[in-house]
Write a structure and sequence with these properties.
Strand content: 15-25%
Helix content: 25-40%
Mean pLDDT: 85
Low-confidence stretches: 1-9
Oligomer: single chain
Largest sheet: 7 strands, mixed
Distance between the termini: 30 Å
Order of helices and strands: EEEEHEHEHEHH
């Protein structure tokens, strides 16, 4: 996502798409950023075109912030920005773009949605400091989750994500 630095020093990365006035990806009206890339191949995925890490539109933090600011008047009553995918954590540099978004005046809620496969202590600590809302995506009991939420080899994800979610919740403390 953000492997290159532009000369201005901003992180750049591949954005699959943007939904400027989303209403289902967090509280209030949302500016929803769909990142490119995902380690899972969920049977019901609404965005299978986000799975591959190749593709998307190279976008730097400043450009994304400029685009988002146009929609700031709609973020009243708890609205804000959601970063989702694909899976935003595919590249660790996603944390840099989240910092840039968190600094936008008027963002009342910054939300990250993750399937948990790549959720680790670094991301957990960042989310606890910077994120208002984190959506941890799980499909219930192991047999249900593993039927629908598989990796590219067809393996279930429950045993990989549940320990990550448990650590996240324990550290979150709320």
């Amino acid at each position: 996502f953000f492997p290159n630095r532009k000369e201005s020093g901003n992180m750049t990365g591949n954005i699959h798409s943007i939904q400027s006035l989303g209403a289902v990806d967090g509280p209030g009206v949302r500016y929803v950023v769909f990142m490119q890339g995902c380690p899972l191949r969920c049977v019901y995925c609404h965005n299978p075109d986000t799975w591959l890490t190749e593709g998307g539109t190279p976008t730097d933090v400043d450009e994304l912030v400029r685009k988002a600011l146009r929609f700031r008047p709609y973020w009243k009553n708890g609205g804000g920005v959601t970063v989702t995918g694909g899976e935003p954590l595919v590249k660790r540099n996603i944390l840099s773009i989240c910092r840039g978004i968190a600094d936008i005046p008027g963002v009342q809620e910054l939300c990250l949605t993750t399937n948990g496969v790549l959720l680790d202590d670094e991301v957990t600590d960042f989310c606890n400091r910077e994120m208002h809302n984190v959506v941890l995506s799980l499909d219930g009991r192991p047999e249900v989750n593993d039927r629908f939420r598989v990796d590219a080899a067809g393996n279930g994800s429950y045993s990989r994500i549940v320990p990550n979610f448990q650590r996240f919740v324990a550290k979150r403390g709320d």
